[in-house]
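Final report, Chapter 2: Outcomes

The project's central promise was a pipeline that accepts a single protein chain and returns its three-dimensional structure in a standardized token representation, suitable for archiving and comparison. That pipeline is now operational. To close this chapter, we reproduce one record exactly as it appears in the project archive, with the input sequence first and the structure output second.
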Amino acid sequence: MLKKEMVDRHLGREEGRVYFMEPIREVKERLGHASIDTTMIYLDHIAEHRALLSMAVSELQATYFDA
């Protein structure tokens, strides 16, 4: 919120305007998706791979470093 207020003040813009969107909505707009549901498909996919990677790293650490 502070960042928005600083930009408003610097640019002389009226209060109440929105300059910084919600991150997920901004990603949707930048990717050109018509629906936020489409964007969520990609985020779900990324989360799934992140979880698998985390499990693999934990297994490697337990095998080689915690012994």
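Archive annotation: The helical segments are 2-11, 23-31, 36-64.
This record, like all others produced under the grant, will remain available to the consortium after the project formally closes.
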